[in-house]
Amino acid sequence: MARHKHSPVAIQLAMGSLAVGLVVLALKGYAAWVTGSLALFSDALESIVNVVTAIVTLVAVRLAARPADDTLPYGYHKAEYFSAVIIGVFITVAALLIFREAYYGFITPRPFTADPVGLGVSIVATVINGAWAYMLISRGRRERSPALQADGRHLFTDVLSTVGVLVGVLLAIVTGWHQLDAVLAALVGISILWSGWQLLRDSVIGLMDVAVDPKQLLRIKEVISANAEGAIEAHDIRTRRAGSATFIEFHLVVPGSMSVEAAHAICDRIEAKLREEERDAMVTIHVEPEDKAKHSGIVVI
Protein backbone atom coordinates (compact mmCIF):
# COMPACT_ATOMS: atom_id res chain seq x y z
CA MET A 1 0.00 0.00 0.00
CA ALA A 2 1.34 3.39 -0.98
CA ARG A 3 1.84 5.81 1.83
CA HIS A 4 -0.10 9.03 1.67
CA LYS A 5 1.70 12.31 1.77
CA HIS A 6 0.23 15.77 1.47
CA SER A 7 1.90 17.89 -1.18
CA PRO A 8 4.07 20.77 0.08
CA VAL A 9 1.56 23.08 -1.64
CA ALA A 10 -1.15 22.22 0.92
CA ILE A 11 1.15 23.03 3.83
CA GLN A 12 2.29 26.26 2.16
CA LEU A 13 -1.33 27.31 1.64
CA ALA A 14 -2.11 26.60 5.30
CA MET A 15 0.84 28.77 6.35
CA GLY A 16 -0.32 31.45 3.93
CA SER A 17 -3.77 31.41 5.56
CA LEU A 18 -2.22 32.17 8.92
CA ALA A 19 -0.24 35.11 7.48
CA VAL A 20 -3.27 36.49 5.65
CA GLY A 21 -5.44 36.04 8.75
CA LEU A 22 -3.04 38.09 10.88
CA VAL A 23 -2.87 40.90 8.29
CA VAL A 24 -6.65 41.05 7.88
CA LEU A 25 -7.15 40.97 11.67
CA ALA A 26 -4.86 43.98 12.06
CA LEU A 27 -6.68 45.90 9.30
CA LYS A 28 -10.18 45.13 10.58
CA GLY A 29 -9.16 45.81 14.17
CA TYR A 30 -7.92 49.23 13.12
CA ALA A 31 -11.15 49.92 11.20
CA ALA A 32 -13.27 48.99 14.24
CA TRP A 33 -11.10 51.12 16.55
CA VAL A 34 -11.19 54.34 14.51
CA THR A 35 -14.92 54.13 13.72
CA GLY A 36 -16.23 52.69 16.99
CA SER A 37 -18.74 50.67 14.98
CA LEU A 38 -20.16 47.62 16.73
CA ALA A 39 -20.75 45.90 13.38
CA LEU A 40 -17.14 46.43 12.34
CA PHE A 41 -16.05 45.23 15.78
CA SER A 42 -18.04 42.03 15.22
CA ASP A 43 -16.39 41.69 11.83
CA ALA A 44 -12.97 42.04 13.48
CA LEU A 45 -13.94 39.45 16.08
CA GLU A 46 -14.63 37.01 13.27
CA SER A 47 -11.11 37.68 11.99
CA ILE A 48 -9.78 36.43 15.33
CA VAL A 49 -11.63 33.21 14.61
CA ASN A 50 -10.03 33.17 11.16
CA VAL A 51 -6.57 33.28 12.74
CA VAL A 52 -7.45 30.45 15.13
CA THR A 53 -8.89 28.35 12.30
CA ALA A 54 -5.78 29.00 10.21
CA ILE A 55 -3.62 27.65 13.05
CA VAL A 56 -5.86 24.59 13.42
CA THR A 57 -5.80 24.03 9.65
CA LEU A 58 -2.00 24.22 9.55
CA VAL A 59 -1.66 21.69 12.36
CA ALA A 60 -4.20 19.38 10.71
CA VAL A 61 -2.60 19.50 7.27
CA ARG A 62 0.85 18.80 8.71
CA LEU A 63 -0.52 15.96 10.84
CA ALA A 64 -2.39 14.45 7.89
CA ALA A 65 0.90 14.43 5.96
CA ARG A 66 2.38 11.90 8.39
CA PRO A 67 2.66 8.38 6.96
CA ALA A 68 0.83 5.45 8.46
CA ASP A 69 2.55 3.82 11.45
CA ASP A 70 1.93 1.06 13.99
CA THR A 71 -0.40 3.27 16.02
CA LEU A 72 -2.52 4.42 13.06
CA PRO A 73 -1.94 1.83 10.31
CA TYR A 74 -4.53 3.49 8.04
CA GLY A 75 -2.85 6.89 8.26
CA TYR A 76 -3.69 10.30 9.71
CA HIS A 77 -6.02 11.44 6.94
CA LYS A 78 -9.01 12.09 9.22
CA ALA A 79 -7.08 14.70 11.18
CA GLU A 80 -8.42 17.22 8.69
CA TYR A 81 -12.03 16.34 9.53
CA PHE A 82 -11.31 16.79 13.24
CA SER A 83 -9.81 20.19 12.47
CA ALA A 84 -12.98 21.21 10.67
CA VAL A 85 -14.99 20.21 13.76
CA ILE A 86 -12.74 22.38 15.95
CA ILE A 87 -13.14 25.26 13.49
CA GLY A 88 -16.91 24.88 13.64
CA VAL A 89 -16.84 25.06 17.44
CA PHE A 90 -14.73 28.24 17.39
CA ILE A 91 -17.09 29.80 14.86
CA THR A 92 -20.06 29.02 17.10
CA VAL A 93 -18.37 30.62 20.12
CA ALA A 94 -17.58 33.74 18.07
CA ALA A 95 -21.22 33.97 16.96
CA LEU A 96 -22.44 33.80 20.56
CA LEU A 97 -20.05 36.59 21.59
CA ILE A 98 -21.29 38.72 18.71
CA PHE A 99 -24.93 38.13 19.71
CA ARG A 100 -24.08 39.32 23.22
CA GLU A 101 -22.50 42.53 21.94
CA ALA A 102 -25.33 43.09 19.48
CA TYR A 103 -27.94 42.76 22.23
CA TYR A 104 -26.31 45.35 24.49
CA GLY A 105 -25.62 47.56 21.49
CA PHE A 106 -29.29 47.51 20.52
CA ILE A 107 -30.46 48.27 24.05
CA THR A 108 -27.90 51.09 24.42
CA PRO A 109 -26.95 52.33 20.93
CA ARG A 110 -23.34 53.45 20.57
CA PRO A 111 -22.47 56.41 18.34
CA PHE A 112 -19.72 55.74 15.83
CA THR A 113 -17.55 57.81 13.53
CA ALA A 114 -17.83 57.69 9.75
CA ASP A 115 -14.07 57.63 9.38
CA PRO A 116 -13.27 57.24 5.63
CA VAL A 117 -9.81 55.81 6.35
CA GLY A 118 -11.27 53.17 8.65
CA LEU A 119 -13.93 52.18 6.11
CA GLY A 120 -11.32 52.11 3.34
CA VAL A 121 -9.07 49.85 5.40
CA SER A 122 -11.99 47.47 5.97
CA ILE A 123 -12.61 47.34 2.21
CA VAL A 124 -8.95 46.51 1.56
CA ALA A 125 -9.11 43.72 4.15
CA THR A 126 -12.23 42.34 2.46
CA VAL A 127 -10.55 42.27 -0.96
CA ILE A 128 -7.58 40.39 0.51
CA ASN A 129 -9.91 37.90 2.19
CA GLY A 130 -11.91 37.36 -1.00
CA ALA A 131 -8.82 36.68 -3.12
CA TRP A 132 -7.40 34.27 -0.55
CA ALA A 133 -10.73 32.47 -0.09
CA TYR A 134 -10.88 31.80 -3.82
CA MET A 135 -7.30 30.53 -3.73
CA LEU A 136 -7.97 28.18 -0.81
CA ILE A 137 -11.15 26.70 -2.26
CA SER A 138 -9.73 26.13 -5.76
CA ARG A 139 -6.36 24.80 -4.62
CA GLY A 140 -7.94 22.88 -1.73
CA ARG A 141 -10.07 20.97 -4.23
CA ARG A 142 -7.02 20.27 -6.36
CA GLU A 143 -5.09 19.02 -3.31
CA ARG A 144 -8.23 17.23 -2.05
CA SER A 145 -7.84 18.81 1.38
CA PRO A 146 -11.07 19.15 3.45
CA ALA A 147 -9.31 21.45 5.92
CA LEU A 148 -8.18 23.93 3.24
CA GLN A 149 -11.60 23.92 1.60
CA ALA A 150 -13.31 24.45 4.95
CA ASP A 151 -11.01 27.38 5.71
CA GLY A 152 -11.71 28.87 2.28
CA ARG A 153 -15.49 28.55 2.62
CA HIS A 154 -15.36 30.19 6.01
CA LEU A 155 -13.32 33.10 4.62
CA PHE A 156 -15.80 33.51 1.76
CA THR A 157 -18.63 33.73 4.30
CA ASP A 158 -16.57 36.37 6.09
CA VAL A 159 -16.30 38.34 2.84
CA LEU A 160 -20.05 38.28 2.27
CA SER A 161 -20.80 39.35 5.84
CA THR A 162 -18.24 42.18 5.66
CA VAL A 163 -19.80 43.52 2.46
CA GLY A 164 -23.17 43.51 4.18
CA VAL A 165 -21.70 45.25 7.21
CA LEU A 166 -20.09 48.00 5.14
CA VAL A 167 -23.32 48.66 3.24
CA GLY A 168 -25.27 48.72 6.49
CA VAL A 169 -22.79 51.03 8.20
CA LEU A 170 -23.13 53.49 5.33
CA LEU A 171 -26.92 53.30 5.65
CA ALA A 172 -26.67 53.91 9.39
CA ILE A 173 -24.53 56.98 8.70
CA VAL A 174 -27.02 58.33 6.15
CA THR A 175 -30.14 57.62 8.21
CA GLY A 176 -28.65 58.38 11.62
CA TRP A 177 -30.23 55.21 13.04
CA HIS A 178 -27.39 53.92 15.22
CA GLN A 179 -29.31 50.81 16.29
CA LEU A 180 -28.86 49.54 12.74
CA ASP A 181 -25.22 49.00 13.70
CA ALA A 182 -26.28 46.47 16.34
CA VAL A 183 -28.73 44.81 13.97
CA LEU A 184 -25.94 44.35 11.43
CA ALA A 185 -23.72 42.85 14.11
CA ALA A 186 -26.44 40.29 14.88
CA LEU A 187 -26.75 39.46 11.17
CA VAL A 188 -23.00 38.86 11.06
CA GLY A 189 -23.43 36.47 14.00
CA ILE A 190 -26.17 34.56 12.17
CA SER A 191 -23.99 34.29 9.07
CA ILE A 192 -21.07 32.98 11.14
CA LEU A 193 -23.32 30.50 12.94
CA TRP A 194 -24.61 29.13 9.63
CA SER A 195 -21.04 28.74 8.39
CA GLY A 196 -20.13 26.84 11.56
CA TRP A 197 -23.10 24.51 11.16
CA GLN A 198 -22.13 23.65 7.58
CA LEU A 199 -18.56 22.87 8.62
CA LEU A 200 -19.70 20.62 11.47
CA ARG A 201 -22.14 18.80 9.19
CA ASP A 202 -19.56 18.14 6.47
CA SER A 203 -16.97 17.04 9.04
CA VAL A 204 -19.32 14.53 10.68
CA ILE A 205 -20.16 13.09 7.25
CA GLY A 206 -16.43 12.69 6.56
CA LEU A 207 -15.82 10.99 9.89
CA MET A 208 -18.61 8.49 9.08
CA ASP A 209 -16.54 7.04 6.19
CA VAL A 210 -18.81 8.29 3.41
CA ALA A 211 -18.44 6.51 0.06
CA VAL A 212 -17.28 8.24 -3.11
CA ASP A 213 -19.99 9.81 -5.28
CA PRO A 214 -21.75 7.57 -7.88
CA LYS A 215 -19.91 9.12 -10.84
CA GLN A 216 -16.54 8.45 -9.22
CA LEU A 217 -17.57 4.92 -8.26
CA LEU A 218 -18.58 4.21 -11.87
CA ARG A 219 -15.16 5.35 -13.05
CA ILE A 220 -13.44 3.11 -10.49
CA LYS A 221 -15.47 0.13 -11.73
CA GLU A 222 -14.54 0.95 -15.33
CA VAL A 223 -10.85 1.00 -14.42
CA ILE A 224 -11.11 -2.37 -12.64
CA SER A 225 -12.99 -3.92 -15.56
CA ALA A 226 -10.53 -2.61 -18.15
CA ASN A 227 -7.49 -3.97 -16.29
CA ALA A 228 -8.72 -7.28 -14.83
CA GLU A 229 -7.98 -9.44 -17.87
CA GLY A 230 -7.37 -13.01 -16.77
CA ALA A 231 -9.69 -12.77 -13.75
CA ILE A 232 -13.31 -13.93 -13.65
CA GLU A 233 -15.07 -11.17 -11.72
CA ALA A 234 -14.72 -8.47 -9.09
CA HIS A 235 -17.43 -8.11 -6.48
CA ASP A 236 -18.19 -6.51 -3.09
CA ILE A 237 -16.60 -3.22 -4.17
CA ARG A 238 -16.48 -0.76 -1.29
CA THR A 239 -15.08 2.74 -1.12
CA ARG A 240 -14.63 5.43 1.50
CA ARG A 241 -13.07 8.86 1.70
CA ALA A 242 -10.71 10.02 4.44
CA GLY A 243 -9.31 13.46 3.82
CA SER A 244 -7.50 13.42 0.49
CA ALA A 245 -7.25 9.60 0.46
CA THR A 246 -9.67 7.27 -1.29
CA PHE A 247 -9.87 3.73 0.08
CA ILE A 248 -10.95 1.07 -2.43
CA GLU A 249 -11.60 -2.54 -1.44
CA PHE A 250 -12.98 -5.43 -3.46
CA HIS A 251 -12.81 -9.20 -4.01
CA LEU A 252 -11.18 -10.46 -7.21
CA VAL A 253 -12.15 -13.96 -8.38
CA VAL A 254 -9.56 -15.80 -10.47
CA PRO A 255 -9.46 -19.32 -12.01
CA GLY A 256 -8.54 -21.99 -9.48
CA SER A 257 -5.68 -23.16 -11.67
CA MET A 258 -4.06 -19.70 -11.80
CA SER A 259 -0.74 -19.36 -10.01
CA VAL A 260 -0.26 -16.94 -7.14
CA GLU A 261 2.27 -15.06 -9.24
CA ALA A 262 -0.21 -14.56 -12.11
CA ALA A 263 -2.99 -13.45 -9.75
CA HIS A 264 -0.61 -11.04 -8.08
CA ALA A 265 0.31 -9.56 -11.47
CA ILE A 266 -3.36 -8.83 -12.19
CA CYS A 267 -3.72 -7.15 -8.80
CA ASP A 268 -0.61 -5.03 -9.42
CA ARG A 269 -1.97 -3.93 -12.81
CA ILE A 270 -5.34 -2.93 -11.36
CA GLU A 271 -3.78 -1.10 -8.40
CA ALA A 272 -1.43 0.88 -10.66
CA LYS A 273 -4.28 2.03 -12.91
CA LEU A 274 -6.51 2.90 -9.95
CA ARG A 275 -3.76 5.08 -8.50
CA GLU A 276 -3.40 6.80 -11.84
CA GLU A 277 -7.13 7.54 -11.81
CA GLU A 278 -7.45 8.30 -8.10
CA ARG A 279 -4.50 10.13 -6.58
CA ASP A 280 -3.74 8.89 -3.04
CA ALA A 281 -5.81 5.75 -3.65
CA MET A 282 -5.39 3.04 -1.00
CA VAL A 283 -6.31 -0.24 -2.71
CA THR A 284 -6.99 -3.56 -0.98
CA ILE A 285 -7.76 -6.62 -3.15
CA HIS A 286 -8.84 -9.96 -1.72
CA VAL A 287 -8.13 -12.76 -4.24
CA GLU A 288 -10.59 -15.69 -4.27
CA PRO A 289 -10.87 -18.96 -6.26
CA GLU A 290 -13.58 -19.35 -8.92
CA ASP A 291 -15.95 -21.31 -6.64
CA LYS A 292 -16.40 -18.03 -4.69
CA ALA A 293 -17.82 -16.25 -7.73
CA LYS A 294 -21.13 -14.47 -7.10
CA HIS A 295 -21.76 -13.70 -10.79
CA SER A 296 -22.40 -10.10 -9.83
CA GLY A 297 -20.46 -6.89 -9.64
CA ILE A 298 -17.91 -6.70 -12.48
CA VAL A 299 -17.93 -9.81 -14.62
CA VAL A 300 -14.66 -9.99 -16.56
CA ILE A 301 -15.15 -13.15 -18.64
Q: Which features does this protein show?
A:
alpha+beta, disordered N terminus, Alpha-lytic protease prodomain-like, 301 residues, Cation_efflux_TMD_sf, 4 strands, 8 helices, 2 domains, elongated, four-stranded mixed β-sheet, membrane, Alpha-Beta Plaits
Task: Report what the structure shows.
The chain is an alpha+beta fold and 301 residues long. It has two domains: 8-207, Up-down Bundle (Alpha-lytic protease prodomain-like); 214-299, Alpha-Beta Plaits (2-Layer Sandwich), CATH 3.30.70. Helices cover 67% and strands 10% of the residues. It is built from eight helices and four strands. It has a four-stranded mixed β-sheet with strand order 3-2-1-4. Helix 5 runs antiparallel to helix 6 (179-207) and helix 7 (214-226) packs antiparallel against helix 8.
